[in-house]
Structure formats: C-alpha cells, structure tokens
C-alpha cells in the first residue's frame, strides 16, 4: 500500500504535465477536484460513512478547500505548462518546511527551536540550488522558468497554510476519521470548482486520449482514492512511518519524468533535492 501511495502521488506531476497538453491549467485543476470529490463521495456511500453535521467544521473546510485544493492545484497546473514534472515534484517536497513556518505563527504550542530553524535554512538552501539561482542574471532559461518555480513554491506554501489551519481549527474538534475529513474537504472544493468552471474553465479543448486519461487518473487516483490508501498506511505504519512518503514522492516524480517524458535532470537538481529532503527530515524529527 505504501508503494502504491508513493507511486500515485509521485505520478501526479506526470499526470499534470500530460494533461496540460489538451486542457488549460484551470481545467486541469478544477477537473481533478471534481473527479476527486465524486470519487471520495462514492467511497463515503459505499462504506456507509456519515457526513459531518457540525456547521463550524464545514465553514473551516472552505478555508482548507481553497488553500489545500483550489489554489495549489491551479498553481501546479499552471507551472506544468513550462516546468519539468520532476522539478515540480522536488519543489513539492518543501511542504513540511512551509508547514513548520506557518505552525510557529498560528499555533501557540509550536516553537521555532534551533533544530527546526536549521532544518528550514537547509531546506531553503536546497531550494536555491534546485532552482539554480546563480543563473538569475546570465541565464535566459532560468528567467523563463522562474515564475513557474515560484508558482510551485506558492502552492507548497498554500499547503502549509491549509495544514496549519486544520491543526488550529479542525484537529481535535471532531470524532470523524481522516477519510471522512478528506471527503468533506473535497466536497467543499468540488462545489467551489463547479462554481468556478463556467468562469475560468471553458476554454476550447484539444481532445486526445493521453491527456484525458491523465486527468482521470489525476482526479480519481491522485485526488481521490489516494486519501483512503494514506489512511491505511497511517493505520498500519503509524503517522511517523507514513510521513516518510514525503521523501519518496520526489524520487518517483523525477524517475517518471525521465523514463516517460524524457526529461533532463541536472546535477544541481539532484544535489538540491537531497539537501531539501535533509532539511525536511531535520524539521520533522524535531517534533
């Protein structure tokens, strides 16, 4: 199950890269949300789980849906137009660093210890190496890819905000399992996506089998079933064991980008990826 979880989450960046060949970024983001919400709602019905009845929980889920689904999915899909899928997967690994920074600000119980600070700094250095910031002046390629790389970092920062919000206002306030919470979050995001679809998601589509299948896989697997798998991994491995998927996702993402799409993987991306993962490991072990 852990292998399937790592493969699907790592492949999500490949799916996005393929999907944007036919769909615009808004269609990819909104499509995966709608497909994911339908998939999770079906799982809720088949497993006879009950939807939450706490009104306050649903209100907080609006914030989570925006920052954990709508905004990051739009940013990653937009970045996929010009950025290699493997590089997006590496930058996605910075999520725990952003989560730590947000947690220190919004959670009274969280403190920025010396070990965490060192981990965040190491992670930031790794990101700079991955991005190749030394080419900021001389390289036209870097200048062209910078907005997309910043979009990926904006997406991971958005994840950090959502996770901090969940810990502050949702965790410990209910008795629902993680599948129910994930389904509720995606249901809210699905409603928002349907509302936005006529506004930003009606561009002409160049239909082709591969992008359509990629979007279906991204939505049903990468935004739906994967949440159920993650719950099983947490149950079997524990939260700490399950968190190691953070280190496997960029490896899978880079490998699939090279094997399937023939992407080029540079030495600075390899070195930077190891440094980012080292920073994340230091931050997570300081808890």
What attributes characterize this protein structure?
287 residues
Please provide the count of β strands. Answer: 0
Structural class given helices, strands, pairing?
mainly alpha
Distance between the termini: 26 Å
Task: State the order of secondary-structure elements, H for helix, E for strand.
Answer: HHHHHHHHHHH
User: Based on the structure, what is the oligomeric state of the protein chains?
Assistant: single chain
Shape: globular
Strand content: under 5%
Q: Number of DSSP helices? A: 11
Major β-sheet, in short?
A: none
Helix content bin: over 70%
Query: If you compute it from the alpha carbons, what radius of gyration comes out, rounded to the nearest whole angstrom?
Result: 18 Å
Count of structural domains: 1
Uncertain runs are none
The overall average pLDDT, rounded, is 88
What would you note in describing this structure?
- The protein is mostly helical.
- It has one domain (2-285).
- The chain is built from eleven helices and no strands.
